[in-house]
Amino acid sequence: MQRTIKKYLLMGIITFLCICSAFVVYTLYTNYRDLRHATYHNKQTDSLPHKQEKKSFHETVKMRHSVVICLALFIAIAIALYILITVSYSISHILLWGGSIFCSLLLCAGIVFMWYLEMQSSLIKQKTHVVTNDKEVTDFLEQQKKQNPQIYKGEVHYLPIGFLFYAIKINGEIVTLYSYPWLKKNDERDKDIKMSFIAMNATRENKTWAEDVIAYDHSKDASWQELLQIHTHFDYNKYPFDQQQITILFEHEQSLKNIILMPDFIAYKWATTPFPPLAEDFTIRGWNIKNAYFFYFFLLTT
Q1: Nearest CA-CA partner of 104 in 73, 133, 82, 130
Q2: What percent helix, strand, coil does the chain show, rounded to 5?
Q3: Residue 269: inside a domain, yes or no?
């Protein structure tokens, strides 16, 4: 009688765990589907207002957490089922070895999946206003013009800028970058505008060569060699799955004169590297470069 009760109790527990695992798998699937949709949506909607963008970012992070929790529950239930069946029934050594290998593979698959999530959703950027061509820049500026019409009441100066970063040195949280920046202007329309811009978040900024100015067709093109030093915080809590981001914020020295800097995409057409602002031999020892891009901040009105 007791054996029969134990047998049915065990079968009930196993059945319950199987139902739980099916529910967890379904929840894992739906959460992962929603996460992929949200990630794609975040990449496509580069024009969200700042508050909506921040909300969307936090919702995406919550989805990632839900996926990881569901995955952990599924693995725990699968291992619990294996242990219950192994303890309750006489199973051959071959099946025991097979079950052990299955559990090991399941744990490895879980680790690989979590790594995949980190690679896909790291830098689910809070700065999503990335621009990769002139059209995206124009669309962004048109939207800014609608949202902040007071900025465009006076004459606006659009100056193409570019960079070629050729070396980097990382010492703790101090990042030193070496680059060749350039700036273009129309000599008639922008005659009172200086040929210079600054890195807003740099703790040190030195020109290692004097400015070289070329004049042609009522235009001027200035280029120079520059050293930038930036203090940034690297978070290694997710090592070896961590990804770090180095951000440099530029503005013109005379930004109060309605000067808007625009990436000089025409100059990058010659680039053979997939990351135009970086030189072809640009490397960071011990790191793989994922991306390099230009982005804008939205101007918030009060």
Answers
A1: 82
A2: 45, 20, 35
A3: yes
Match 């070289």 to its residue by tokens.
212
Whether residue 107 sits in one domain with residue 158: no
- 186: CATH: 2.70.170.10
Structure tokens at 203: 């703790």
**Is residue 71 domain-shared with residue 175, that is, in the same domain?**
no
Whether 177 and 205 have beta carbons less than 8 Å apart is answered as no
Confidence of residue 301 (pLDDT cuts 50, 70, 90): very low
Helices (H) and strands (E) in the chain, counts: 4, 13
The CA distance from 223 to 109, in Å, is 51
Segment 109-115 shows an average pLDDT of 76
Q: What is the pTM of this model?
A: 0.60
**Could you tell me if 109 and 167 lie in one domain?**
no
Q: Closest Cα to residue 118, out of 235, 285, 30, 239?
A: 239
Structure confidence by residue, pLDDT tens digits, 132-169:
888 888 888 888 778 777 666 778 888 999 999 999 99
Flag whether pLDDT at 196 surpasses 70. Answer: yes
Cα separation, 148 vs 156, in Å, equals 13
Question: Is 171 inside a domain boundary?
Answer: yes
CA dist 263 and 47 (Å) reads 18
Q: In total, how many domains does the chain have?
A: 2
The answer as to whether 301 is a domain residue is no
Q: pLDDT: is 52 or 9 the higher one?
A: 9
DSSP annotation string for 167-197: EEEEETTEEEEEE--EEEEETTTTTTS-S-E
